[in-house]
Design brief:
heterotrimer, B: alpha/beta, 4-stranded antiparallel sheet, 9 helices, 12 strands, globular, C: mainly alpha, MetI-like fold, 84% helix, flat, transmembrane (chain A)
């Protein structure tokens, strides 16, 4: 084996890793915010009685769920310009990750929407709220509370998926780690530190989301 | 002749091929308290829900203060009114449900305030004071900032009644409001309804509490297989039923 | 129309390259699933029936793997293993990383399925005099298997998707082959689309199969 661990080179570049981590987080949060909007619209499509709304929504979810995310990322960045859609690396990546997460969130939200008791919607109708007001004041806020645990795991897996931005040279954590790996040859140390940063961030994100859940939990 | 508050004309309602209301006619004056009794499946809850357009209906008309509810004639064709218009008409009636249906993510006060703010376009402060007034009236002034999950069933139902009544409806609809309650909590809810009746509120109650119907109602309607089987003064209805069906129903129900 | 014909022409030229890539993608996925599942069952058993220290170690392993992006696992495996003297080529290192990733998922599935079995089942088995290993093989495992098979099939689809990450370390699976083809003919839109179509076909077939398995294994009731 003959490999002795020496972290000093990695520590010297630790700043780079942290900046990369910050960018990873920004990418994930940007993607989930846009993805949540896409997912919400799609979820209403999925539960719609009208086939015109339901079929495109179901097609979108099925297609995206069965494609590797890396193919989507490369497609958006390298192939779309051929169609005249030219985006910067970061914009392209966030948009792709948002569309990707939208499909998963749509299914999460669909289940959440179906779990809202019909009686609550009727109570809203009975005091004279319009269907749209019922959606915004009752159904959506309750749905979000119900799906918080799934939302939290989606955020964490999106955060991990930001590593794929390295494939189009977005300087996030994995990209920086690979750079340090090549520059310093401290292979083992670099990847141990990078993994630990990912694991630690996932743990913190999970804890934060649990705190949010506890604050918003509805006592029954 | 006084103008009718509620007028139901030849109301028909089908679920698929099953006809649950087979032509119901009924009128109601301002200030009346009418109990609707009958076995399950007789159509009494469905009738109540039609008045609030929670159920569509296929035939007949429902008028509140002479205004047709839910449908209008356009070029001789019966069409459903717009959702916005139906929402406005629903606010003419207040409804309390068997399962309370309080919004679990809002406090008692917020539950009451929601309709005041969104439908009546009241300012927040004003809505809050109206909500507090009504919660006070149902004996829950101290619980305004509790969430439904922190209240007992009876308290939740009283909040639900306050939520409906705060909208200042022309008519209150009560759909078996005590059926989901533990027996010891029934009394507090019935007391609230009695107080409202004493204030002159017009009310239509679907209920299984025969004793209560007897005490509080100015009139009782007995529904049987989708039509009104018998109606009249509670004393006559309960003590000297005119039809075989009602006599049988009263025998099997808890009225004693 | 001419462009489409040109595309078909390019596809025909590249047909063996694409097929070889597809073959490699399938091999990577199958190997990762097979190795990962064997390891994953062990992980699941350790998490469910292991003593406290074993459970702690295995839990740390699964949490660490699940908290790390698969791409990082692939890169780490590729760079680290050779550095510390384990000579694996890119293909082997990649399959190893995917198998490790798969094992943590399968481990959780196995644990979940075993813990979902009501304790009354074990008690009933004890009551008729079965030993633990008899109880496990004839009562617990068959029930757990039924419950986890559909999820396990979905994990297979995940592995097919994750196999694309091996393109980053130079394993010439379908995605890398596609990129090579594009670098020659610059038809990025068409060939990424084709790759997407192939991946979709494989995963959609797996998804349908999963639904079929779900119907088949459900206990008649």
């Amino acid at each position: 084996m003959g490999y002795t661990l020496n972290f000093s080179a990695v520590w010297r570049s630790f700043d780079q890793l942290l900046w990369g981590l910050l960018l990873s987080l920004e990418l994930a949060i940007g993607a989930i915010l846009i993805g949540a909007v896409i997912g919400l619209v799609t979820a209403f499509g999925l539960i719609s009685k009208s086939g015109w709304a339901r079929r495109p929504a179901a097609l979108y979810v099925t297609v995206i769920r069965n494609l590797p995310i890396l193919v989507l990322i490369l497609f958006s960045y390298f192939a779309l310009p051929q169609m005249g859609v030219r985006l910067g690396k970061i914009e392209s990546f966030v948009a792709t990750l948002a569309i990707y997460s939208g499909a998963y969130l749509a299914e999460v939200f669909r289940a959440g929407l179906l779990s809202i008791p019909n009686g609550l919607k009727e109570a809203g109708l009975a005091i004279g709220l319009t269907p749209m007001q019922i959606r915004t004041s009752i159904v959506i806020p309750l749905m979000f509370r119900n799906v918080l645990p799934s939302l939290s795991s989606t955020l964490i897996s999106l955060f991990k998926d930001t590593s794929l931005a390295a494939a189009i040279a977005v300087p996030e954590l994995t990209f920086e780690a690979r750079k340090i790996n090549v520059e310093t040859f401290r292979v083992v140390e670099t990847w141990i530190v990078a993994s630990c940063l990912y694991v630690a961030t996932c743990t913190v994100l999970a804890a934060l989301m649990r705190m949010v859940e506890r604050r918003l939990v509805i006592s029954r | 002749m006084t103008k009718n508050l509620l007028e139901i004309q030849a109301l028909r309602k089908r679920y698929g091929s099953v006809e649950v209301l087979k032509g119901v006619d009924c009128t109601m004056q301002q200030g009346e308290v009418i109990s609707i009794i009958g076995s399950s499946g007789s159509g009494k809850t469905t009738m109540l829900r039609c008045i609030n357009m929670l159920e569509d209906f296929q035939g007949g008309r429902i008028l509140i203060d002479g205004e047709p509810i839910g449908y209008e004639e356009r070029n001789g064709v019966r069409v459903r009114k717009s959702e916005k218009e139906i929402a406005r008409q629903r606010a003419l009636t207040g409804m309390a449900f068997q399962q309370f249906n309080l919004f679990p993510h809002m406090t008692a006060a917020s539950n009451v305030m929601l309709g005041l703010i969104k439908v009546k376009k009241m300012a927040r402060d004003e809505a809050r004071s109206v909500a507090e007034k009504w919660l006070e009236r149902v004996g829950l002034g101290q619980r305004a900032d509790h969430y439904p999950g922190q209240l007992s069933g009876g308290q939740q139902q009283r909040v639900a009644i306050a939520r409906a009544i705060a909208m200042n409806p022309r008519l209150m609809l009560f759909d078996e409001v005590t059926s989901a309650l533990d027996p010891e909590l029934v009394g507090e809810v019935l007391q609230v309804i009695k107080d409202l009746a004493a204030d002159g509120m017009s009310m239509l109650l679907v209920t299984h509490e025969m004793r209560f119907a007897f005490e509080v109602s100015s009139r009782v309607i007995f529904m049987n297989q989708g039509v009104i089987g018998e109606e009249g003064d509670p004393k006559v209805m309960f003590l000297k039923p005119q039809t075989e069906r009602l006599a049988e129903f009263l025998k099997t129900s808890s009225f004693a | 129309m001419n462009e489409f014909l040109a595309f078909l022409d390019q596809v025909w030229l590249a047909r063996f390259v694409i097929l070889r890539g597809l073959g490699l993608t399938v091999s990577i996925s199958l190997l990762a699933i097979a190795l990962g599942s064997v390891l994953g069952v062990l992980v699941g058993l350790a998490l469910t029936y292991g003593n406290r220290p074993l459970r702690f170690v295995v839990r740390a392993y699964t949490d660490f793997i699940r908290g790390t992006p698969v791409l990082v696992l692939v890169l780490a495996s590729f760079y680290i293993l050779s550095t510390i003297g384990i000579e694996l080529n890119a293909f082997q290192a990649g399959v190893f990383a995917l198998a490790v990733f798969c094992s943590s998922h399968v481990g959780e599935i196995v644990r979940g399925a075993l813990q979902a079995i009501p304790p009354g089942q074990t008690e009933a088995a004890k009551a008729i005099g079965l030993t633990f290993s008899q109880t496990f093989t004839s009562v617990l495992w068959p029930q757990a298997l039924r419950q986890m098979l559909p999820t396990w099939v979905n994990t297979a689809a995940e592995m097919v998707k994750a196999s694309t990450l091996l393109s980053v370390i130079g394993v010439a699976e379908l995605l890398l082959r596609t990129q090579e083809i594009i670098s020659r003919n610059f038809m990025s839109l068409e060939f990424y689309f084709l790759a997407g179509l192939l991946y979709f076909a494989i995963n959609y077939a797996i998804e349908r199969f999963g639904k079929y398995v779900e119907r088949k294994v459900s206990v008649p009731s």
